[in-house]
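hi! just following up on the protien thing from before. the input was this:
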Amino acid sequence: MRYSLAQAAEATGRSRSTILRSIKAGRLSADRDALTQAWMIDAAELHRLYPVLSDDEPRTPTDGQPRTSELTELRTRLEAADLRFADA
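and the predicted 3d structure came back as:
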């Protein structure tokens, strides 16, 4: 089975841009369709890098909004790490 970029994103719960970045970085092998030039990704190759999303895992946040508390925490951690590197 082969996935298009959109199908691969749906199957793994990742964004299309994440999948495309993995292809461009060489972490994920994919071919271009000769007629449409769309990316085609082999299922085994996709799931080697990104596991299959199970049916009980939410594909998006339940309310459709970004998880602001998680984003705030991650930004705080990133700023702290930047400060540690700047001090070194």
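Residues 1-53 form a domain with the Multidrug-efflux Transporter Regulator; Chain: A; Domain 2 fold (CATH 1.10.1660).
The chain has a mean pLDDT of 84.
cheers
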